[in-house]
């Protein structure tokens, strides 16, 4: 007789106040608009998944998102 255990992986939108919640993140503008209307989670450049509900202008930009954005758009710090 053989026994197997099934595992299930789920991704939940962040509801806590972790480090990523202290920053504004870069997401596609269309995804952001849709999320505000429908409540669907979005995924930032840094990988954070959440449902936007706060004014991003009140927070510093996520350093990881900023670094990825700069790389994708050919922007350098120098």
What order do the helices and strands come in, and which of them pair?
Elements: E1 23-24, H1 29-38, E2 42-43, E3 49-50, E4 60-61, H2 63-72
Parallel strand pairs: 1-4
Antiparallel strand pairs: 2-3
Can you tell me about this structure?
By secondary structure, the chain is α+β, with helices and mostly antiparallel strands. It has a domain at 19-72. It has helices at residues 29-38, 63-72; strands spanning 23-24, 42-43, 49-50, 60-61. A two-stranded parallel ribbon has the order 1-4. It is globular and about 45 Å long. The termini are far apart. 12% of the residues are buried.
String of helices and strands: EHEEEH
C-alpha termini separation:
65 Å
Q: Helical element count?
A: 2
Mean pLDDT figure: 80
Q: What share of residues are in beta strands?
A: 5-15%
Structural class: alpha+beta
Shape: globular
Largest sheet: 2 strands, parallel
Q: Low-confidence parts lasting 5 or more residues at pLDDT below 50?
A: 9-17
Strand segment count: 4
Helix share, percent: 25-40%
- Radius of gyration, taken over Cα atoms and rounded to an integer in Å: 16 Å
Spatial order of the strands in the main sheet? 1-4
Nutshell version of this structure?
The protein has 78 residues and is an alpha+beta fold.
Name a few traits of the molecule.
two-stranded parallel ribbon; alpha+beta; 4 strands; 26% helix; 2 helices; 78 residues; two-stranded antiparallel sheet
């Amino acid at each position: 007789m053989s026994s197997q255990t099934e595992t299930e992986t789920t991704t939940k939108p962040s509801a806590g106040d972790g480090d990523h919640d202290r920053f504004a993140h870069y997401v596609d503008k269309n995804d952001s608009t849709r999320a505000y209307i429908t409540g669907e989670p979005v995924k930032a450049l840094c990988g954070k998944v959440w449902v936007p509900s706060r004014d991003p202008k009140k927070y510093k930009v996520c350093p990881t998102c900023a670094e990825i954005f700069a790389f994708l758009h050919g922007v350098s710090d120098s």
